[in-house]
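Query form — protein Pyrroline-5-carboxylate reductase

QUESTION: What is the three-dimensional structure of this chain?
INPUT:
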Amino acid sequence: MSQHIAFIGAGNMSRAIYGGLIRSGYPASQITATSPELDVLQTQQNTYGIHTTTDNLLATTKADVLVLAVKPQILKMVCEEIAPVVKNRKAPPLIISIAAGIECNAISKWLGVEAPIVRCMPNTPALIGVGASGLFANRFVSDQQKDAAEQLMGAVGIAEWVTEEPLLNAVTAVSGSAPAYFFLMLNAMQQAAIQQGLSADSARKLAQQTALGAAKMAIDSTESLTRLMQNVMSPQGSTEQAILSLQSNEFSEAIEAAMNACKARAEAMQKEFGG
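ANSWER: The structure tokens for Pyrroline-5-carboxylate reductase are given below.
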């Protein structure tokens, strides 16, 4: 029998995950979502056929897997609310937290019990089934529970484990926040193409399809990214000139600086919200 999964919070990421699970064959009858907003719950029940409730304690009582999908600023309040139920159970459920910046030790402290906790850093492409998530498990998580967490996030893309919790900040830099980097580059490419005379519609379609194709080639190819780049270039050709221009303007250094700034902010958020 499938495990019962309860989502505390029925926002976009929760909907992406349980929507993906249901599309992959997971029974909707084994999923519960909570929200203080009745209209949200009614919509989710009608759309997905899942159970819904405004009662976080009730959802926690039924859950084999409990997904904490609330904003970091309110996670402490939610954990302290459900703590009596978690502590009174014979064995605590597997806790999966997608709240950025809150460490496992803080969650355990707020719950008042040493629970099996998996922290997850997803990204927004999970909303369309092509997400990339980083996962970290504390020492109380069993191999079976790791498999359950991987199945959960695998329903909306790929999931990669890290062995040390601080590495989730690097995951934030390379995937969690990174869709925005590509949107910024796409926008710059589109604006440059418009300046060169293309229509806005053509510039958008060509840039977006090129990004899609390049990503697909990188995923499917056994060749290195350097080799794939060189395959597009010919000596003294137009592509070579574009790459030389990017390199002379310190493109790689700018990306590294951006990722370092992202990681530093993620580390700061842990201190802000994890007390």
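ADDITIONAL NOTE: The chain has two domains: 5-168, 179-270.
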